[in-house]
């Protein structure tokens, strides 16, 4: 029995590994959970092929490039920006860069190696974190169960996104710091923790909030000798130096590539909003992120409840390290909305706050251990019952509903369209929304995509195609877009351009629950004859 208890955390992690591999098996080839995964894949494929440019350098004929430059480029802000006549995706270059070698070796499945392994490392680090607090193995096992099977974090293990990697880096750095609080914090540990936390910013800009929090707390701890803010007792200068230098290296690379230290992300957050607009949006984002976090990880209610009760109950008083984790988490939740350009768009739970899941989970099970020691009034059973109820809610939402929504919804329809595009002989594809091009980036070697949001855009494309001798092209309207701002796509569009007057005839050739595909035929408008 003791041997089983000792190995129970590792068995739970193993079960999580098996489940995450099952999730990966549900991912269809060349289909992404979110369209921006397609953009990152395009850049990763470019880098993996040996074309070491950080702008999206799609290989197309000059006439296509000219047509794109006239306003029909398949991607637009906030997902793509034109900088110095080059097109850049708005996401950091780092994630496509580190996944490019895996794609080159393993193909499409190689994209998922880093997100998957990063999630596994988070789980192991959570185990180490709990051991550093001398928590009971049984309590740690409960924490692992809630982390793996009642949080949205696991859903991201099989999505082509950089969030689990960024969380893995930042959380690993925090684990080093808190695991050595009572021991000698060595130079090596100070440097490594600073580098890891700094590297998280290389992949996700919201981790600048964590960097700012740690720098602030370390500096203030020089002035105020308070235990709550003394995150690092020794080697503060070494930690700050490694952390800041890591960030500065990233800023320098961004300056070289994008001519801005914050990269293309700056065009979303820094330059396109006034201070007043940013604050208003930040308040809106805060409420949306908070609500999403609470909904998808209800264990937080237990963590917050225990934290509040501990203020009034000495026997439930939080350890100073746990209180510091709570402080860091609260500040992170307040600062992140200022740094982000949106509430996250299509996601499963708040992806910008994923780092808070293991942190709040530590607080929750630390509180559970304290209540478990209280035998009076059935406190241990009441607290365990509340946590179990929250676990059931989280399990049902994340594992049952999450698997269906994140990995099955729309899957067949997307595969159907992808297969159609691969078999169809038309080389030109016009799309009403840039998400279509992002979703079917796997066909970019076979097809040339143009973004045509308005009838005039379709007309402009028709003229360019007529000059090149093309007589037909595909037009794709997704269910989430009111194509041409009208409930019905017209049967034909007239293109008035001297010396030619053209008609673009549209005919529906395929439709499913998510997409409607029209075949457009370019024909010469008959000239009127005088009778």
From TrEMBL:
Keywords attached to this entry: Membrane, Transmembrane, Transmembrane helix
InterPro entries per UniProt: LA3751_2-like
Transmembrane intervals: 6-24, 112-130, 137-154, 160-178, 208-225, 237-258, 296-314, 321-340, 352-369, 381-400
Superkingdom of the source species: Bacteria
Protein name per its UniProtKB record: Dolichol-phosphate mannosyltransferase
Organism for this UniProt entry: Anabaena sphaerica FACHB-251
């Amino acid at each position: 029995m003791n041997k089983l208890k000792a190995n129970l955390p590792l068995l739970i992690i193993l079960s999580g590994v098996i489940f995450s591999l099952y999730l990966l098996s549900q991912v269809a080839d060349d289909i992404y959970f979110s369209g921006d995964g397609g953009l990152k894949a395009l850049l990763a494929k470019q880098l993996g092929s040996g074309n070491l440019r950080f702008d999206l350098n799609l290989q197309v004929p000059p006439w296509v490039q000219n047509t794109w430059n006239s306003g029909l480029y398949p991607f637009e802000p906030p997902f793509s920006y034109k900088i110095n006549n080059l097109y850049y995706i708005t996401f950091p270059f780092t994630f496509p860069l580190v996944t490019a070698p895996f794609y080159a070796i393993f193909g499409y499945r190689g994209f998922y190696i880093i997100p998957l392994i990063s999630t596994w490392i988070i789980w192991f680090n959570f185990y180490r974190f709990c051991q550093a607090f001398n928590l009971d193995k049984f309590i740690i096992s409960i924490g692992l169960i809630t982390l793996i099977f009642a949080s949205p974090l696991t859903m991201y293990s099989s999505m082509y996104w950089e969030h689990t990697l960024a969380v893995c880096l930042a959380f690993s750095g925090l684990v080093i710091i808190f695991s050595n609080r009572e021991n000698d914090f060595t130079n090596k540990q100070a440097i490594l923790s600073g580098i890891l936390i700094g590297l998280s910013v290389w992949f996700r800009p919201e981790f600048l909030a964590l960097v700012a929090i740690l720098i602030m707390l370390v500096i203030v701890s020089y002035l105020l000798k308070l235990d709550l803010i003394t995150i690092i007792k020794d080697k503060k200068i070494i930690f700050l130096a490694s952390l800041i230098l890591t960030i500065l290296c990233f800023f320098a690379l961004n300056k070289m590539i994008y001519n801005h230290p914050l990269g293309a992300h700056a065009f979303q957050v820094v330059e396109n909003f006034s201070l007043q607009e940013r604050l208003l949006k930040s308040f809106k984002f805060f409420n949306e992120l908070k609500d999403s976090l609470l909904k998808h990880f209800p264990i937080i209610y237990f963590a917050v409840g225990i934290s509040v009760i501990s203020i009034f109950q000495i026997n439930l008083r939080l350890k100073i390290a746990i209180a510091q984790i709570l402080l860091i988490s609260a500040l992170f939740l307040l600062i992140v909305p200022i740094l982000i350009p949106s509430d996250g768009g299509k996601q499963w739970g708040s992806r910008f706050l994923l780092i808070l899941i293991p942190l709040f989970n530590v607080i929750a099970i630390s509180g559970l251990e304290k209540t478990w020691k209280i035998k009076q009034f059935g406190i241990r059973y009441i607290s365990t019952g509340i946590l179990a109820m929250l676990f059931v809610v989280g399990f049902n939402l994340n594992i049952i509903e999450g698997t269906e929504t994140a990995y099955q919804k729309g899957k067949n329809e997307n595969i159907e369209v992808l297969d159609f595009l691969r078999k169809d002989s038309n080389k030109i594809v016009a799309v009403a929304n840039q998400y279509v091009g992002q979703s079917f980036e796997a066909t970019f070697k076979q097809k040339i995509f143009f973004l045509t949001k308005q009838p005039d855009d379709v007309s402009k494309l028709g003229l360019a195609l007529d000059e090149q001798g093309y007589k037909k092209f595909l037009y794709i309207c997704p269910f989430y877009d009111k194509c041409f701002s009208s409930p019905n796509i017209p049967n034909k569009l007239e293109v008035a351009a001297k010396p030619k007057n053209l008609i673009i005839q549209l005919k529906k050739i395929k439709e499913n629950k998510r997409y409607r595909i029209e075949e457009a035929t370019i024909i010469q408008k008959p000239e009127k004859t005088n009778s």
